[in-house]
Write a structure and sequence with these properties.
The structure holds two protein chains of two kinds. By secondary structure, chain A is an alpha+beta fold. The longest helix of chain A is centred in the middle third of the chain and has 92 residues. Chain B has six helices and five strands, in the order H-E-H-E-H-E-H-E-H-E-H. Chain B has a five-stranded parallel sheet with strand order 2-1-3-4-5, with helices on both faces. The two termini of chain B are 22 Å apart. Classes of the chains: A alpha+beta, B alpha/beta. Chains A and B meet through helix 6 and helix 7 of A and helix 2 of B.
Chain lengths: 445, 129
């Protein structure tokens, strides 16, 4: 019965120890502040064992000293802070290298050298257990003044505690180191962020400057166009008045000269328009209207507007429209493209020739618009180059080309802006065929 | 109700442009077609003319000193609600053309212009076209 009770008490005590250790290990895991770690560790273990005093010391390899770490338990902080001794002086009292616990049950057992150090602590018994981490001693736990003396259980408990404390202290040091690294990292991040922000501001500034320049360029082009058109309007206006007899009859060579002035003024006007168009397109400043269109109507309209020119050049114009799907696009721009193609065809076809304008369906939900002439055709090597800026082909009548050299470049840009393609083929029986494919409305992506 | 004996007033056209050359070209052309033409050099002069005589047609440039065409349009429209207003400009600009229409312009013609087109639009003011 007695033995049973003792056993029960022993188990209860063991349970409390484990509970205490568990609590301590939980506390260890959560501790990141080194001061708080020492304070709580020493209090918990001293209470668990029932001793009056407990201090943790850390070993400094540089000075070979054990240095007291405040706060401890039952010992004033200033006393702990002054507590430092070289391990060499301990050698006689405790074999430091073996790392085993040292238990002194009575002041008479204290080593003379040790007695000197321990006097301020007013100790009558003491247990010291090293803090061992990965086989190295990093410090020690000193516990003193247990009223009924330290028992082997206490030493064992303190040893287990020391093993956990060593890990906890190392963790705390790592945390501290981590904090430091984190602070460094944060400083670095702030620095980089500031650099990036500066860079971003710089980019934003240069972007704003570029946009300003772009707008200036746009304004400039608008102004240039306006400034060029004004004197051109005067030249053409006076010549028109002369040619139309507003100031009386004009005949012979004079009329011929005036016609030449008129034609060149018109050419210059087209050039100004084309240059402005091209610059707008290349600057991405052109906006397409989006309408569903009947290509047959666009083709008919463009052809109709050039009938007078066709009649003047005695060229027969055919319209072939069959089953062409409706397309999405900008009617003005497509009119411009078709007018350009048809007037080119008229220019390069000798009198008595034939120009055919067709609008049909093409595979892949496309509309196929084609302008076919009976002119001399374009050599294979030149077929791609006709779309280059300022590329000029010789006219069939031997005259200098009357265009700006930009019409087909603009046409290609405009067709591509519509999601289409344009190219030139050799026409069966000679001549050229300009073909464009445009996505059918509703059939595209 | 207009009297039949006043064809000169019926065919009155106001041309507004700061370019003397353009004024001369348009004036000569219109007079050659039997119109009577009054010229103004900017929007302010144009308003004075419109208040003094009542042109059935106003041909108006946009870029002018003192009062430009775009700013003058609204005022001209209030002064001469029935006049046919044609903007004749060197600025090929669709939004600008729309702004002009919104302020009361009836037609928009780009310089250099086709004289036949100008005559066709002018004739509209007098019931043709």
């Amino acid at each position: 019965m007695r033995a049973g009770l003792t056993g029960l008490m022993g188990r209860l005590r063991r349970f409390r120890e484990l509970e205490g250790l568990h609590e301590i290990s939980q506390a260890f895991a959560a501790m990141t502040d080194i001061q708080e770690t020492y304070g709580r560790l020493t209090r918990r273990i001293a209470e668990l064992i029932g001793a009056e005093k407990c201090v943790i010391s850390l070993y400094d390899p540089a000075t070979r000293e054990m240095i007291g770490q405040a706060p401890g338990y039952g010992v004033p902080d200033d006393l702990i802070r002054r507590f430092r001794y070289r391990v060499d002086t301990l050698r006689d009292a405790w074999n430091f290298r073996t790392g085993g616990p040292m238990v002194k049950h009575h002041p008479s057992e204290f080593h003379p050298a040790q007695r000197e150090y321990l006097r301020p602590f007013a100790l009558y018994n003491v247990t010291v257990v090293p803090l061992v981490l990965e086989g190295r001693i990093i410090g020690m736990v000193s516990m003193g003044n247990k009223r009924r003396g330290f028992r082997p259980d206490d030493v064992r408990l303190l040893t287990v505690f020391a093993a956990q404390a060593a890990v906890a202290i190392q963790n705390t040091r790592l945390y501290a180191h981590l904090d430091e690294s984190k602070a460094q990292l944060e400083a670095k991040v702030r620095e980089r962020t500031a650099e990036l922000e500066a860079l971003y501001r710089e980019l934003a500034d240069s972007h704003a400057r570029l946009r300003e320049l772009d707008e200036l360029k746009s304004d400039f082009l608008g102004n240039v166009s306006h400034e060029l058109r004004t004197p051109l309007a005067a030249i053409k206006g006076f010549v028109d008045n002369l040619l139309d007899g507003v100031t009386g009859p004009v005949a012979g060579k004079q009329r011929h000269y005036l016609v030449r002035v008129h034609d060149n003024a018109e050419r210059l006007t087209r050039m100004v328009s084309d240059l402005l168009d091209l610059t707008r397109i290349e600057a991405g400043k052109i906006e397409l209207a989006s309408e569903t269109l009947d290509p047959a109507a666009v083709v008919a309209e463009a052809t109709e507007s050039l009938r007078p020119l066709a009649r003047a050049r005695r060229i027969h114009v055919d319209l072939e429209v069959a089953g062409c799907p409706r397309i999405w696009g900008d009617p003005d721009k497509l009119h411009q493209v078709l007018t350009n193609l048809v007037s080119n065809a008229l220019k390069f076809t000798p009198p008595g020739g034939r120009v055919t304008v067709a609008a049909t369906a093409a595979p892949g939900a496309m509309a196929r618009l084609a302008v076919h002439d009976t002119g001399p055709g374009i050599p294979a090597a030149e077929r791609e180059r006709v779309f280059d800026k300022f590329h000029q082909l010789g006219r069939v009548d031997g005259q200098r080309p009357a265009g700006s050299g930009l019409g087909l470049t603009i046409a290609r840009y405009l067709v591509e802006l519509h999601g289409g393609r344009i190219w030139v083929d050799e026409a069966p029986g000679g001549g050229s065929t300009f073909v464009m494919l445009l996505p059918a409305a509703g059939g595209g992506p | 109700v207009r009297a039949l004996g006043e064809p000169a007033i019926e065919r009155l056209v106001l041309v507004v442009d700061d370019e003397a050359d353009l004024l001369e070209i348009v004036t000569d052309r219109l007079e050659g077609e039997g119109y009577r033409v009054v010229a103004a050099r900017d929007g302010i002069e144009a308003l004075e003319v419109v208040r003094a005589v009542r042109p059935a047609c106003i041909i108006l440039d946009l870029k002018m000193p003192r009062l430009g065409g775009l700013d003058a349009l609204g005022e001209l429209r209030r002064e001469a609600p029935g006049a046919h207003m044609i903007v004749l400009t060197s600025s090929p600009n669709r939004p600008l053309a729309e702004a002009c229409r919104a302020r009361g312009a009836d037609d928009f013609l780009l310089k250099p212009f086709d004289p036949r087109e100008l005559l066709r639009l002018t004739a509209r003011a007098f019931g043709a076209g």
